Amino acid sequence: MRVVLLTEVYPPRAGGAGWSTRALALGLREAGHFVSVATTSPGPPDPDGLDVCRLVARGRKRLAVPRAFAAHAANEVDGVLHAQHSLSALGGLAGARASQVAVTVRDHWPVCFWSTRISQGALCPRCGTVPMTRCVKGRVPGPAPFSWGAIPYMRADLAEKRAALARAGATLAVSQAIASELTAAGIPRVEVLPNVVDAAETRAIAAAEPSFPLPERFLLFVGKLEENKGARLLVPAVAAAGTGLPLVVLGEGSLAHALKFDAAAGGVSLILRGWAHREDVLRAMGRATAIVFPSLWPEPLSRVLLEALALGVPMAAMDTGGTREIIEDAQSGLVVEDAAALSDAVGRLAGDADLRRRLAGGARARAERFSPAALIPRYEAVYRRLR
Fold it and tell me: Is the CB of residue 81 less than 8 Å from the CB of residue 94?
């Protein structure tokens, strides 16, 4: 079978969505399929020996990127099309073959203009005109009510994305948490199909030494330093845990300086390294005493947590979105309800080696649910229906 993956984000420099697309591509190739990737993300044309077409999208991103994907998709008359994100979905679904296109929804783009469901640092329960008057503050230039002029555009953008998804032959939510909100928004034909994680590859990469020095024992945070990832909670939670362990942060974002101030005030030894290559991220994860995951937004299906499962790394994670679909509390990690409980969980993990060993074993066993062997046949079944 020929499968064409369409995606705005793809390695070498990519977040979880890009690496999840790569894992899917490699899993499909291993299963004997011919796989190609079309992406607007820059990089080499043949990473991993895959056929990767780097599309050029000139002009305003919101218009140019879907056009680039639509043009590419129009030339793919034989392959199954599988869009991996919002703009690639708009492009892939623009043609006459929309009913033969699969779309994976990896975050909240069909229900939230900002794709995070976070407004003014807190969870926004439901989108609409009145809530939008609040969420444009600080994001759209100008004071209210002038900034409210953006709201008709935002509403039209969401309506266009939902209408496009309604034409898709299959809408694949990466978690039940995402599937539930899509169904509530009226999106038809939604099914849950998680991201793939190759545990063997993950462990092989993590076995090598990282390119930078690390403490003998440390706590680790991996991700964007933004409100939705709980960056404001991170250092206070570690400080309250009182472990004395340094906190290594691999990520960048608008709250980097806030972390430094919090660390100085809280007496936390902070090692803020910024963005890191995936190989170094996995190598740091494999050596961490525990991962701290303070995320506030409804996590679709965090790749950080999936890769931590594969590596058997103890985790303390906030209970948001699809996190409980990855971690079984007290079996493969600790899942908590609030910042105080997160601090307590971090302290328990740091101080109890037996607990860490037990959770590590549970995590590695849990990772099998997300393996290529478990998930690729399910993707193949979707593609067969669309041919």
Answer: no
Residue 334 and residue 349: Cα distance in Å, rounded? 9
CB atoms within 10 A of CB 134: 12
Q: Look up the domain containing 141 and give its range.
A: 2-196+371-386
127 and 265 part of one domain: no
CA distance 83 to 353: 43
**pLDDT tens digit sequence for 80-98:** 999 999 999 999 999 888 9
Instruction: Give the pLDDT confidence of 23-82 residue by residue, as tens digits.
Output: 999 999 999 999 999 999 999 998 899 999 999 999 999 999 999 999 999 998 788 999
Residues 53 and 183 in one domain: yes
**Residue 161 and residue 240 in one domain:** no
Cross-strand bridge partners of residue 7: 39
Amino acid type, 47: P
- Examine residue 12 and say whether the peptide bond preceding it is cis (omega within 30 degrees of 0): yes
Q: Taking the model in full, what pTM does it have? A: 0.94
| Residue 166 sits in the same domain as residue 259 | no
Residue 26 and residue 173 in one domain: yes
Is 44 buried (19+), middle (13-18) or exposed (0-12) by CB count in 10 A? exposed
